[in-house]
Amino acid sequence: MAPPLIYGVVASPWTMRVVLACAHKGVRHTLRMPEGGTRTPQYLALNPLGKMPTLVDGKLVLFESAALLEYLERKHRRRPLLPRTASAAARARQIAAVCDAYLQDQAANLFRSLVGQRPDDPVYLDDLKAEIGRALDVLEGLLAKGRFALGATFSLADCYLVPALYFTVRFAPKHGVADPLAGRVKLQRYWAGIRRHKTVAPVLAGADAFFAERLKGTKAA
């Protein structure tokens, strides 16, 4: 059977979540941009929202990163993303939920404001940076001691936290925040380690390469 096909790009934080899960679990897959973009009739037949990622695995078609992660977790039991205990699994989902609701889109808006997809006026950006700061403070309080978000093992929490921090750390300096993690010791330690981890580093390198090519000569570069 052919490996699952994931439509998306690794520089999309929502796609990156799924790619990280595949990397952790050792799931072979093909990552591809939809031919002609996300608004063609062919792609909209797969994902009527016209968003990424979308997964095609045999006859199964799924969209929305949370659904894809749930599917991968249940189909590929090796190296689970959710801990066995109820409390630890809930903590993983809690970190994921905070990233999803309060940090990821806000951090992505730092990028969007540089390429004309969001306002770049000071009032909007000050409010955005304040939102991001509050989310980072919450996550600082939720991180466990250890290399990963929950401590000793890679989990669903890392699939959400890595892309959110990647966008924050990469694009906040473009808006005058030299170190968005300053004063947050656990987040600083976490980011310094996780971005070099064997599962994560190649994924981030792919995102770096994508942005280096696509943003060449722009203020977002």
Please explain how this structure is put together:
The structure is a single chain. The chain is an alpha+beta fold and 221 residues long. The chain has helices spanning 13-25, 41-46, 65-75, 86-114, 122-142, 156-171, 185-194, 201-214; strands at residues 5-7, 30-32, 54-57, 60-63. Strand 3 (54-57) and strand 4 (60-63) form a beta hairpin. Helix 1 runs parallel beside helix 3, helix 1 (13-25) crosses helix 6 and helix 4 (86-114) packs parallel to helix 6 (156-171). The chain is globular. The N and C termini lie far apart (40 Å). The model has no long low-confidence stretch (mean pLDDT 96).
Short description:
By secondary structure, the protein is α+β, with helices and mostly antiparallel strands. The protein is built from 8 helices and 4 strands, in the order E-H-E-H-E-E-H-H-H-H-H-H.
Oligomer: single chain
- Biggest sheet, open or closed, and with what strands and sense? 4 strands, mixed
Q: In CATH terms, what is the architecture of the largest domain? A: Up-down Bundle
Average pLDDT taken over every residue: 96
Strand order of the largest sheet: 2-1-3-4
CATH topology of the largest domain: Glutathione S-transferase Yfyf (Class Pi), Chain A, domain 2
SS-based structural class? alpha+beta
Q: Measure the end-to-end span.
A: 40 Å
Number of helices: 8
The CATH class of the largest domain is Mainly Alpha
